[in-house]
Amino acid sequence: MRHLMSPLDFSVEELEKLLDLAQDIEANREKYAHACAGKKLATLFYEPSTRTRLSHEAAMLNLGGSVLGFSSADSSSASKGESVSDTIRTVSCYADICAMRHPKEGAPMVACQHSSIPVINAGDGGHQHPTQTLTDLLTIRSLKGRLNNMTIGLCGDLKFGRTVHSLINALVRYEGIRFVLISPEELRLPEYIRHDVLDKNQIPYEEVVRLEDAMPSLDILYMTRVQKERFFNEEDYVRMKDFYILDKEKMKLAPEDMYVLHPLPRVNEISVEVDSDPRAAYFRQVQYGVYVRMALILTLLDIHVD
């Protein structure tokens, strides 16, 4: 039995197979329509989510399975003080696979240690968000035709952004990757990721404050929102939330074949006027998220479709 706690739980070769499967699902939806008939996915979401929860549920429904679960800690026995380990032991009696989001880092890891079904980490605090990373990798590979030899700009909240942390960990395993880290001083990438991941793997990167300075050199621009829920006080959040706004004028500085990704939800960091630009790929990214989660469910349940 396998779980997914981090993008590094899959080797590069296994990731390629997973992404190949996701692309086959995209091209042949009907072939997979009953692959999980009789199987149940439990979505255990201790904090709010739209895309991650619904895309896991859509993925299982597209495979012919069914779903159950809760969408907030208040609507579960966690509000009565039940532990994560007891919850997963109980849910293991009801479902065949589980996706968990939790505000505390490491909670899905605790769950997988007590679970008798595969557990998918659907986001734990500011730590990891591996299924978003799989979505990002599939999106980049589908749009650019490769996952190596490119410059990735990461913009916004690089300190608390778990999507950024997971994506960096996944991409450093590919050749020719270079990062441009675009953030205010207060939201810089944590030192442990710079030293333990980038420096350790000899990955070239530069840190800049101005988005305009980075745009001309990018193959991918990965925008993130400043996350209100990660701040300890309102004043700091208000000061930071509009630090970056991607608009048409800034897009003029970017190469014609650069694509803009965003894990969503967005607040103000991408103007709606950018949505009509063919390089705006964040809603296509959402659709790719369903295909890659379908592929992940099949992989973790060890279901093969001829």
From TrEMBL:
Residues 149-299 form the Aspartate/ornithine carbamoyltransferase Asp/Orn-binding domain. Keywords: Coiled coil, Pyrimidine biosynthesis, Transferase. L-aspartate binds at residues 80, 162, 225. It is an enzyme of class 2 (transferase). GO terms for biological process: 'de novo' pyrimidine nucleobase biosynthetic process; 'de novo' UMP biosynthetic process; amino acid metabolic process. Its EC number is 2.1.3.2. Pfam families: OTCace, OTCace_N. Carbamoyl phosphate binds at residues 51-52, 101, 129, 132, 264-265. The keyword Isomerase does not apply. Heterododecamer (2C3:3R2) of six catalytic PyrB chains organized as two trimers (C3), and six regulatory PyrI chains organized as three dimers (R2). Catalyzes the condensation of carbamoyl phosphate and aspartate to form carbamoyl aspartate and inorganic phosphate, the committed step in the de novo pyrimidine nucleotide biosynthesis pathway. This is Aspartate carbamoyltransferase. It comes from Candidatus Mediterraneibacter gallistercoris. The lineage of its organism: Bacteria, Bacillati, Bacillota, Clostridia, Lachnospirales.
